[in-house]
Amino acid sequence: MFRSDLLRDKVIVITGGGTGLGRAIGERYLELGAKLAIASRRKDVLQTAAQEMTQNGGEVFYHPCDVRDPSQVTELFDAIYAHYGKVDILVNNAAGNFISPTERLSSRAVDSVLNIVLHGTFYMTLELGKRWIEEKKSGTMLNIVTTYAASGAGSGFVVPSAAAKAGVLTLTRSLAVEWAKYGIRQVAIAPGMFPTEGAWSRLVPSEEMGERLLNRVPLHRAGNKSELANLAAFLVSDEAAYINGEVVTIDGGEWLQGAGEFNELADLTNEDWDQLSAKMRSK
Ligand SMILES: CCCCCCCCCCC/C=C/C(=O)SCCNC(=O)CCNC(=O)[C@H](O)C(C)(C)COP(=O)(O)OP(=O)(O)OC[C@H]1O[C@@H](n2cnc3c(N)ncnc32)[C@H](O)[C@@H]1OP(=O)(O)O
Ligand SMILES: NC(=O)C1=CN([C@@H]2O[C@H](COP(=O)(O)OP(=O)(O)OC[C@H]3O[C@@H](n4cnc5c(N)ncnc54)[C@H](OP(=O)(O)O)[C@@H]3O)[C@@H](O)[C@H]2O)C=CC1
User: Fold this and answer.
1) Which residues, judged by CB distance below 6 Å to any ligand atom, belong to the binding site of ligand 2?
2) What is its main location (predicted)?
């Protein structure tokens, strides 16, 4: 699909790059010639991922970091610069989320999600942005949001995540304008349903419900991680150099299905339509 050197020698930092979608994105970037730095809280997860990801070659540097802590974020970039000497691309992928009626949340629960998603993304963006501006270096930042942020609708039962991801999208759009003069590009992806252990264990109440959810996707299936990874590769590549401040939704049409007032009529059969049409024409 892409030139095999699309991301050759690009140094790419991925938060949450040891699991789920972050890891899938990283694996694709490696195939396209990038050098990776992955970061998250659990050192053992990062270490195992780095080993497995480099079985066919390539380089994955890992460094534990809780993105909620600005001093750890500074240490992370110090370590990456000491190792690679530069960073070209940042993927803000780390997130926290769980389902709960909002009135049951403690203030610590709210902080936990807001601090990972909004503050963590902001600290990573700010630390690297300052370095790039000082170095007079251009670069690209990709933020992973959600369809409930991109649609503007938000969502009940994941309200801290909805508020935080909306903030991340606003950060993306704001800096796309402010930092364009430094050659810093901002883009975002809004994924729909991509089954991962991290998301499904916290967000899908039962296996049966998971199956049923697929029916609300017009394409009647979940996304493949490789589909998301290919989009993430294109958006950070030089081929997408004129895309700035945009969010690309990849959800099989799920959010549009919910938005169109008459879309539930997709459940009607041809026979239903024959009967309905005859009835309505007779009026
Ligand atoms: C029916 C429809 C289903 C649709 C399914 C389709 C899905 C598609 C859309 C998916 C959008 C996905 C967005 C995502 O972001 S997925 C990523 C999920 N991955 C993660 O969340 C990984 C990281 N998460 C965590 O580490 C934890 O979950 C947490 C965010 C809680 C942070 O961990 P930490 O160790 O810092 O936090 P604590 O355990 O100390 O807890 C802090 C306070 O939060 C309270 N808490 C924790 N869990 C819950 C819960 N489930 N419900 C209510 N409250 C919770 C905890 O009690 C602490 O508060 P207190 O000290 O006051 O007790
Ligand atoms: N899967 C899906 O269907 C969807 C996912 N998304 C988004 O995709 C991204 C990846 O999610 P997914 O792969 O599904 O889930 P995962 O749970 O696998 O990924 C979350 C990652 O974030 C890391 N992380 C969490 N808290 C912190 C922290 N404080 N500091 C550093 N790293 C942290 C975790 O590692 P560790 O625990 O080691 O810190 C983990 O690697 C997220 O932004 C999510 O919101 C959006 C829409 C749909």
Assistant:
1) 15-16, 18-22, 40-42, 45, 65-68, 93-96, 116, 120, 144, 146, 191, 193-194, 196, 198-199
2) other
Distance CA 13, CA 20 (A): 15
Ligand 1 centre from 117 Cα, in Å?
Answer: 11
Active-site residues, by number, are 148
pLDDT tens per residue across span 168-224: 999 999 999 999 999 999 999 999 999 999 999 999 989 888 888 898 999 999 999
Does this model's pTM top 0.90? My answer is yes
For 184, list phi and psi in degrees, rounded to 5.
Answer: -100, 120
For the record, the structure tokens of 135 come out as: 């170095």
* Mutate-to-test residue for ligand 2 from 47, 93, 142, highest number of ligand atoms within 8 A of CB: 93
ipTM entry: 0.99
Please, what is the angle between helix 120-135 and helix 70-84, to 10°?
A: 40
pLDDT per residue as tens digits for the range 113-168 = 999 999 999 999 999 999 999 999 999 999 999 999 999 999 999 999 999 999 99
Please check whether residue 70 is in contact with residue 127, taking contact to mean a CB–CB distance below 8 angstroms: yes
- Ligand 1, pocket-test mutation among 40, 45, 98, 215, most atoms within 8 A of CB: 98
Residue 221 region by backbone torsions, left for phi larger than 0, else alpha for psi between -120 and 50, else beta: beta
Token pair belonging to 242: 């004129």
Q: Which domains does the chain have, with CATH numbers?
A: 11-281 (3.40.50.720)
